[in-house]
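Hi, here's the filled form for the chain we discussed.

Project: internal
Contact: R.S.
Residues: 248
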Amino acid sequence: MHTPAADIEAIERATLQAVAPEHIEAALPGWLLPMDSGSIGRARSAVPLHHHHTDAQVLDAIVVRYRQRGIAPAFRVPDLPGCSALHQGLLARGFRREQATLTQCGAVQDLLAVHTGPVCELATRPDEAWVAMFLGEGFDPVEGASRAQSLGRASGTLYASVRDEDGHTVACGAAALSHGWLSVHGMRTAAAHRGRGLAAQVLHSMAHEARRQGIERVFLQVTADNAPALALYRRAGLATAWPYAYWR
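And the returned structure, exactly as it came back:
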């Protein structure tokens, strides 16, 4: 799948707006350098804004900038031929490739078809129950707290909550609406409620609001080994635009 250059840059800028790192440096042409003390990889890994050939010498300047802020340098680089020089340069500098991930794109209209029931609640700020979803059974509490904090301080994001008949939040997600895209983040379903289509309800609700605001395209990032999520996203019409990995 070929992704236009303008869309690549818009997606990467929208991603960082959603994960809200503590600092973003944009002094190096063609790169964004998010820096954060938390645990979210996207919020603390340098990312190129294009997928064509780049001289690996730029890596040294990026490493220096991260170390000046006391943050371990890391990179989020597409697994594409145009980035092969970066891959080789990272290997030569002692970095290791980890956490294969997929950037998937699709149409908001297709997300509307994954659920036929009512939309769930969308709030402009995350409440305590939404945050608690990241601390529940099956989730790493440290990573979850960091992720909830990062997503919670973003601008232009709506926070989706599905509640059961007793009012307890049992599924959630974050819908960032920026740079012409709906981006999906923080999808969580309580362990006891999985397999009931709640994640589909969250996606449908996000799509409903995006459509209301005139946004027609959606993207998300998902780890390549998350089979249940990938199955849902296929049903929602999402396809891989490009794969990437973290280099640490």
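Let me know if anything looks off before we file it.
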